[in-house]
Amino acid sequence: MDQAHGAFNKYYTEADTLLARLPIAQKFQEKTGVSKVYGASGIAGVGLLLVFLNIGASLLVNLTGFGYAGNILTENGGWFDNTVLIFCVAYASMEAIETPGKEDDAQWLTYWVVFGLFNVLEYFTGFLLYWFPFYYLIKLGFLVWLMAPATRGAERLYHSGLKPLMLQACNSQRSVPANKAAEAKSD
């Protein structure tokens, strides 16, 4: 029991330190008298419950696609170190563009390609996917995996699946006109 209490206190302290950086969390705590950690946990819990019950799940999950949880699971095991918990992907993308290195540019550009393709596919198959139990919970987990810097899921999916498919499709498209031009010259 002491071990569980110690773990709770550790994560509570990390979350409190993180949320102290957000002015809105500070205002929430001052106005309500409720700890900002409990407030954020309550909001996240209600959001997950709504997704689980499929009440506004599509909107909430797609908004999560534009939200960014930072290094929630990092290599050294800390949950909240050196991150801002709620961080806009669009802002992270703009920030990546402004940095001199290209590694973060590639991460976010790849994320947007995968996210966009996923949404296009979902548009055409949404009426079928809606009937799968827990579809939006699975999608939520998938989007978090795509965007998390610790997993770099979008880059993995792009390099292992999308890139080979796109190169194959582009090469087959390029070879068709070349073959027709060669046939026209030989006639």
Please characterize this protein's 3D structure.
This protein is mostly helical and about 190 residues long. About 75% of the residues lie in helices and about 0% in strands. It has 8 helices and 2 strands; from the N terminus they run ααααββαααα. Strands 1-2 form a two-stranded antiparallel sheet. The longest helix has about 35 residues. It is globular and about 65 Å long. About 10% of the residues have low confidence.
Largest sheet: 2 strands, antiparallel
Q: Radius of gyration over alpha carbons?
A: 22 Å
The total of beta strands comes to 2
The general outline is globular
Helix content: over 70%
User: How much strand content do the residues show?
Assistant: under 5%
For the residues shown, what is the average pLDDT?
76
The rounded distance between the terminal residues' Cα atoms is 85 Å
Task: Briefly note the structural class of the backbone.
Answer: mainly alpha
| Order of SSEs | HHHHEEHHHH
Low-confidence parts: 69-87
The number of helical segments is 8
Strand order of the largest sheet: 1-2
